[in-house]
Amino acid sequence: MTKNKRSAQGYTWEGVAVHAYKTEGQAPFKAVTRQVLFEGEGLAAQWRYFEVAPGGYTTLERHQHVHAVMVIRGQGHCLVGEEIHPIGLFDLVWVPPLTWHQFQATADEPLGFLCLVNAERDRPQLPSEDDLAELRRNPHIAKFIRV
Ligand code: MN
Fold first, then answer.
1. Dihedral over Cα of 41, 44, 47, 50: its sign
2. Active-site annotation, residues
3. Is the dihedral of CA 15, 49, 68, 91 positive or negative?
4. Could you report the per-residue pLDDT of 65-100, keeping only the tens digit for each?
5. How far apart are CA 136 and CA 142, in angstroms?
6. How far is the CA of 81 from the centre of ligand 1 (A)?
7. Hey, is 65 helix, strand or coil?
8. What is the C-alpha separation between 115 and 147, in angstroms, rounded?
């Protein structure tokens, strides 16, 4: 049993370390933290909690593994493939294999979401210049993405 602590600073759990989302400079992102809630022997998945600060965004990326996401704090938008959706409390987002995706928080509050992944998974791919040019052919996506 692990107690949750919710505060204006963020949602945390006793004994669960709050990590930087990714190593700075490794991939473009802004103001995201990562906590691993469940992992280990007997579980073929990892269950994480991400928190994106107001105005922040996750890396635009794709990979073979899928994401099963539930928003549990705040609001924002997500790009999944060709579609941009507003997202809010308890909405579910499925990110299929090899599908470009990015999550962005609104300007006024953090966006927090649970994300289930395979424990063993491939590394994310970042968009090449060609990929970006392809994505930007859609004006909505061109306006949305942060890279
Ligand atoms: Mn991803």
1. positive
2. 115
3. positive
4. 999 999 999 999 999 999 999 999 999 999 999 999
5. 4
6. 12
7. coil
8. 21
CA of 115 to the centre of ligand 1 (A): 9
| Rounded CA separation 55/62 (Å) | 22
CA–CA gap between residue 87 and residue 78 (Å, rounded): 7
Per residue in 14-50, pLDDT (tens digit) is 999 999 888 777 788 889 999 999 999 999 999 999 9
Domains of the chain: residue spans and CATH: 17-144 (2.60.120.10)
Question: Residue 12 pairs with which residues in a beta bridge?
Answer: 5
Q: How far does the centroid of ligand 1 lie from the alpha carbon of residue 146, in Å? A: 15
Residue where the block lists tokens 């759990």? 13
Q: What is the pLDDT of residues 111-138, one digit of tens each?
A: 999 999 999 999 999 999 999 999 999 9
Q: What is the pLDDT of residues 47-62, one digit of tens each?
A: 999 999 999 999 999 9
CA–CA distance, 103 with 101 (Å, rounded to integer) = 7
